[in-house]
């Protein structure tokens, strides 16, 4: 079968032919319908994650069950599924509550999940090590649904934790309207009545945010960005700031515009640092570093999509174009989420 492989840090991915795997006891073979192309993959390719290659990329995956290993029950061949991305130990407290994204034994596990140490879904088929890592997809198209397992799940997890603050008179800031940010705007519209301000340095992405329902958009690279956001937010300031970039400039912007009793969630991995001083961030501000989401939350995200409340904006490409797609992502030339189709 054809697969997009990570070989080593600093080396482009390679599209190669490898044997089609067969599921062992307790495993499931999934025929991939779509695999999302995530900015986190660029961190793997360019900086590494401390796990040796080669392995098949792709941690946002959806498709159909092709074969069941011995002992697997509750599923049948042909069932449409999404693959839950963060693979934990399956037995600790967090894993038992479906929050494998916060597995207590993560340091001793030799993989973060499929596409992140283990073979992922940028291939014709993918081995999933346990049925607990599958979520029913219903009637959703796997190509459109693949990004739900990260690009939607990650902002959903961050937003759900902030819901008590997202009252109708609140103002929420979304920075970075890429794969995760464009889903965040939709999730906020579906779950809250808060006013949404969206920031990016790309005018086409700001227009995308407008189309998705943002109340205000602004160029976050402007020298007047903080003043502009403060004017929009008024004396209360931003109640919840969701930073899907994580650069020094965006973290600093969040710190400058949130009000007292607020929340900053830094999701992006661009290497910025949040500096603390007295009343900076303002007193009462919670700072969180959410990671991915729980399997239960993925079920909730899929329900939102099935009800027509959210939908990933997808640009689909064949597997053969993976190297070019990663370069397009690196250059900011993807609208919404790129998905590779076997």
**What is the radius of gyration computed over CA atoms, rounded to a whole number of angstroms?**
20 Å
* Overall CATH architecture of the largest domain: Alpha-Beta Complex
What is the overall silhouette?
A: globular
Structural class: alpha/beta
**What composes the largest sheet?**
7 strands, mixed
CATH topology of the largest domain: Quinone Oxidoreductase, Chain A, domain 1
**What fraction, in percent, of the residue positions are helical?**
25-40%
The number of helical elements comes to: 10
Give a count of the beta strands, DSSP E runs of length 2 or more: 18
Distance between the termini: 9 Å
The CATH class of the largest domain is Alpha Beta
Low-confidence stretches: none
Q: What is the number of domains?
A: 2
Query: Strand fraction band?
Result: 25-35%
Mean pLDDT: 97
């Amino acid at each position: 079968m054809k697969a997009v492989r990570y070989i080593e840090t600093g080396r482009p991915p390679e599209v190669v032919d490898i044997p089609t795997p067969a599921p062992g006891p307790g495993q499931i073979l999934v025929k991939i319908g779509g695999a999302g192309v995530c900015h986190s993959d660029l961190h793997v390719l360019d900086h590494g994650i401390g796990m040796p290659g080669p392995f098949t990329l792709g941690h946002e995956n959806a498709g159909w069950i092709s074969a069941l290993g011995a002992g697997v029950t509750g599923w049948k061949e042909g069932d449409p599924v999404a693959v839950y991305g963060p693979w934990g130990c399956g037995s600790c407290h967090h894993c038992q509550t479906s929050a494998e994204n916060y597995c207590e034994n993560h340091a001793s596990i030799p993989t973060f999940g499929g596409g992140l140490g283990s073979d992922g879904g940028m291939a014709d088929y993918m081995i999933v090590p346990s049925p607990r890592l599958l979520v029913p997809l219903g009637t959703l198209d796997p190509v459109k649904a693949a990004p739900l397992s990260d690009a939607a799940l990650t902002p959903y997890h961050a937003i759900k934790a902030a819901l008590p603050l997202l009252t109708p008179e609140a103002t929420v800031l979304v920075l970075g309207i890429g794969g995760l940010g464009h889903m965040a705007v939709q999730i906020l519209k579906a779950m809250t009545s808060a006013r949404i301000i969206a920031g990016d340095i790309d005018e086409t992405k700001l227009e995308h945010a407008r189309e998705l329902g943002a109340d205000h958009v602004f160029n976050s690279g402007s020298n007047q960005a903080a003043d502009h956001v403060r004017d929009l937010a008024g004396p209360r300031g931003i109640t919840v700031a969701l930073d899907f970039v994580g650069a020094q400039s965006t973290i600093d912007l969040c710190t400058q515009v949130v009000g007292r009793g607020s929340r900053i969630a830094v999701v992006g991995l661009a290497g910025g640092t949040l500096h603390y001083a007295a009343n900076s961030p303002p007193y009462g501000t919670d700072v969180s570093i959410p990671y991915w989401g729980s399997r239960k939350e993925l079920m909730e995200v899929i329900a939102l999509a099935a009800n027509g409340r959210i939908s990933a904006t997808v640009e689909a490409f064949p597997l053969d174009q993976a190297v070019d797609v990663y370069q397009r992502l690196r250059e900011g030339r993807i609208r919404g989420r790129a998905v590779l189709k076997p």
